[in-house]
Write a structure and sequence with these properties.
Blueprint: E1 8-10, E2 20-26, E3 32-42, E4 44-49, E5 52-53, E6 70-76, E7 85-92, H1 94-97, E8 112-121, E9 126-130, E10 136-139, E11 142-146, E12 150-154, E13 163-164, E14 166-168, E15 175-177, E16 183-190, E17 193-196, E18 202-217, E19 225-231, E20 233-234, E21 240-241, E22 251-255, E23 263-264, E24 271-280, E25 291-298, E26 304-308, H2 311-327, E27 328-329, E28 331-332, H3 345-358, H4 362-375, H5 401-413, H6 417-435, H7 468-490, H8 493-514, H9 526-534, H10 541-554, H11 563-575, H12 579-587, H13 594-599, H14 635-642, E29 645-647, E30 656-659, E31 669-676, E32 679-688, E33 691-698, E34 703-708, E35 711-715, E36 718-725
Parallel strand pairs: 6-15, 12-22, 30-34
Antiparallel strand pairs: 1-14, 2-7, 2-10, 3-6, 3-8, 4-5, 4-7, 8-9, 10-13, 11-12, 16-25, 17-18, 18-23, 18-24, 18-25, 19-22, 19-24, 20-21, 26-31, 27-28, 29-30, 31-32, 32-33, 33-36, 34-35
Helix pairs in contact: 3-5, 3-11, 3-14, 4-5, 4-6, 5-6, 6-7, 7-8, 9-10, 9-11, 11-12
Bound molecules: beta-D-glucopyranose.
Beta-D-glucopyranose binds near residues 334, 340, 344, 449 and 628.
């Protein structure tokens, strides 16, 4: 068992709003060969030795299904120890007992920490200092901390008035080794401009929406305050706009000790923002150099790059990257700013393929999917958010993270362990949906989101017009497909057979139930045709594709889809022979479209197509995040179709690459690169006289099927050039 000798320790008022520090002083007995600190918390912690931060993991121990598991971290601290040492561990609210947990962890246990400092001396002897009754605690200057509401820090508060700790039960059986990536400080963004709004507010613009926190220099005299608020946008009059943060106050307060050489940032809070307001600031002499935005996210390695001749499309692509950076903070979140920041499964599911092009997210999803499986009910229901904060309802397209994400991760990295880990969960979800029955009420009631935020929604509703039962059934067919693929990869022939039979049954039910006598779907929406085509449920593909194209034309060559339809419309059109129409959607600049948001100054992906309406007003205060990656799923089409880089599902992880770029005359060039375990795959095209010059690079150890026009050739590593006639 991890941390076997150590005890969980807390304070005599564990839920007080001031963050405590736990301390043990330690003098080594001799020369140290090596020393490690193993630690975790119910809450989030920061360990410091003699005032120096231990490690680079922020918001450790991360967010897992806390009732089932809490990750434990081990740090090499050999270099931090000297003759006399203060081992300090600060404890914050974080996901365990901050407002984000909505009361759901209250019954697990009180916030607490547990640690062991293990020293090996040069003479080979060892010593362990574990958390126990001999530790003490004191108050820190962090008077209040919460992800949503921000932090209050009093720099005058020095540790003192030490008290004995209280031993508590933090549930040792839940401790597991660190599985995910660590969250860390990735980059500093400089402050770009300072201005005063019509209302007289003092604003700093970082020029980019980020997730993290502001780091600023103290300019206040002793006892003076600096109060900073955060926002994503300015309203149509140019004033600071925070209504879309809903109840999340996102306010940082610093009470100065008068030391103007000090820089400060929150310890246990983060915000999603582009602008800050100096709500309380002791001077009107503002220096941009006194502020920087620190970007924090999971420490994923960047793997994909894309560029084309249209600067607006390039900005859209950058927005997708920033969307991922802003929302892959230990778990894949819906948004980083308002009072959610939760692991919404539907969002993660539709974005997973794109995420796996942009960054190496293999480890990230191993961890999150493990929690998904732990939070799944015995009968297979998947929670809408992972880690779950309430009883799972089981919603189609959201619960499908259980089947889609493992498959996408396997497809991208060829690492069978994700399927081994998740296979039971995949099957359980598919079985749950199947056993739910297909009565008209099967998907009715609460807990369903439909084609979320589709623009064909009825006035006042968030749910697009597509029939729920149709969508739920289409997803069931897709789930069967994915279980079949996983079963094949794992060599489970019986399951391949069983789920193939089910797949046929579901496909038949889909046609019988949702196709009218005229051969068209009874739910006549873009999204209905998209899922029928994309999940291979259209008995007459040509007819369905032509109808979808007509519907797009009838809508002014614009999209009307929500979370579900948007994720697949580009592939559905392309695979049905309408790549040119997909390009039209991509290049569309009028509302609603991806480039409309870019035109309106987006630096991340918006939650709603008209987050900011053409007249500059907002569509709603409630569901209006400006950093919601879901619609960024379009980037997988940029890599996979425009530039034509896809993995071969039979040889996943780019062992064999499917290269099939589809150029379009409205652009001069497009190119993408993808770092795979074999090296960098490159593919792109450029307009030349009479057509397009296609250039491809396949790294050593990989092979490729390169399709140019109608011709496909199988090749090994090398550089290839082709001419595609226009
Ligand atoms: C979230 C979404 C999520 C949805 C469920 C919202 O509040 O921000 O992204 O998927 O609820 O429909």
């Amino acid at each position: 068992m991890l941390l076997e000798q150590a005890k969980f320790i807390t304070t005599d008022n564990p839920r007080a709003s001031v963050a405590p520090v736990f301390r043990k002083s330690f003098a080594p007995k001799g020369e140290i060969a090596s020393a490690a600190l193993t630690v975790t918390a119910r809450g989030i912690y920061e360990a410091r030795i003699n005032g120096v931060r231990v490690g680079k993991f922020y918001f450790a121990p991360g967010w897992t299904s806390y009732k089932n598991r809490v990750q434990v971290q081990t740090y090499d601290i050999t270099e931090l120890l000297s003759e006399n040492n203060d081992i300090d561990i600060l404890l914050g609210r974080g996901w365990h007992y901050g407002n984000i947990q909505r009361g759901s962890f209250e019954n697990i246990c009180d916030p607490c920490i547990i640690a062991s400092l293990d020293v090996t001396y040069a003479d080979g002897t060892t010593e362990s200092i574990v958390t126990d009754e001999s530790w003490q605690y004191a108050k820190t200057g962090i008077l209040y901390n919460d992800y949503y509401n921000g932090e209050i820090f009093d720099a005058n508060q020095v540790y003192g008035d030490w008290k004995p700790v209280v031993i508590t039960d933090g549930k040792k059986e839940a401790l597991v080794p660190q599985q995910g990536e660590i969250v860390t400080q990735i980059e500093e963004v400089t402050a770009k401009t300072y201005f005063i709004t019509p209302k007289g507010e003092r604003i700093i613009d970082f020029g980019q929406e980020v997730t993290g926190y502001v780091c600023f220099r103290n300019v206040a005299n002793i006892g003076g305050r600096i109060v900073i608020d955060h926002a994503e946008i300015l309203d149509k009059d140019g004033n600071f706009y925070t209504e879309n943060y809903r109840s999340a106050e996102s306010r940082i307060t610093y009470i100065s000790d008068g030391d103007k050489t000090k820089w400060h940032h929150p310890v246990f809070s983060f915000q999603g923002f582009r602008y800050i307001r100096l709500t309380d600031y002791p001077t009107n002499e503002i220096y941009l150099g006194d502020f920087k935005a620190i970007v924090l996210h999971s420490d994923m390695k960047r793997t994909g790059r894309f560029e084309c001749s249209d600067p607006m499309v390039n900005r859209l692509y950058e927005n997708v990257i920033w969307g991922q950076r802003g929302n892959f903070l230990d778990v894949p979140t819906d948004c980083p700013q308002r009072d959610e920041r939760l692991g919404w499964t539907g969002d993660a599911q539709v974005f997973c393929r794109t995420a796996a092009y942009n960054y190496d997210v293999n480890k990230f999803f191993h961890k999150w999917l493990c929690d998904l499986a732990l939070d799944q009910t015995d009968d297979g229901k998947v929670a809408q958010i992972i880690p779950a904060l309430w009883e799972p309802d089981g919603a189609f397209a959201w619960g499908d993270a259980a089947t889609v994400c493992p498959w996408e991760i396997f497809r991208a990295y060829g690492d069978i362990s994700i399927l081994t880990q998740q296979y039971d969960s995949m099957k359980k979800w598919c079985d749950y949906v199947y056993n739910k029955g297909d009565g008209p009420d099967a998907w009715g009631g609460g807990g369903q989101y439909g084609d979320w935020l589709g623009l064909d929604a009825e006035e006042g509703s968030y749910r697009g017009a597509t029939n729920d039962l149709l969508l739920g059934t289409a997803f069931l067919a897709y789930e069967c497909d994915l279980v079949i693929k996983a079963a094949k990869a794992l060599g489970k022939e019986d399951d391949v057979k069983a789920y193939s039979v089910r797949r046929e049954e579901v496909a038949k039910a889909f046609c019988d139930t949702f196709i009218g006598e005229d051969g068209y779907l009874t739910s006549d929406t873009q999204t209905a045709y998209v899922v029928a085509l994309h999940f291979d449920l259209a008995p007459d593909r040509e007819k369905f594709a032509a109808h979808l194209a007509e519907k797009v034309h009838a809508n002014g060559d614009r999209i009307q889809t929500g979370f579900i339809g948007t994720a697949y419309i580009m592939d559905a059109l392309t695979d049905a022979g309408y790549a040119d129409l997909a390009y039209t959607l991509l290049l569309q600049r009028e509302f609603p479209s991806w480039l409309y948001c870019v035109r309106k100054g987006a630096t991340t992906i918006w939650e709603h197509w008209d987050g900011l309406k053409p007249d500059g007003s907002v569509w709603s205060r409630d569901m209006n995040s400006f950093n919601h990656y879901a619609y960024g799923a379009v980037a997988s089409w940029m890599y996979g179709t425009m530039c034509g880089i896809k993995p071969d599902e039979d040889k996943p992880g780019y062992e064999n690459v499917k290269i099939h770029p589809i150029p379009d005359a409205r652009l001069d060039y497009a190119r993408a690169e993808l770092d795979t375990k074999f090296g960098t795959v490159k593919s792109g095209w450029e307009k030349v006289d009479g057509g397009y010059q296609i250039s491809v690079t396949i790294p050593a150890g990989a092979t490729a099927d390169i399709t140019v026009g109608e011709k496909t050739e199988h090749v090994g590593a090398g550089e290839y050039k082709y001419l595609l006639n226009a």
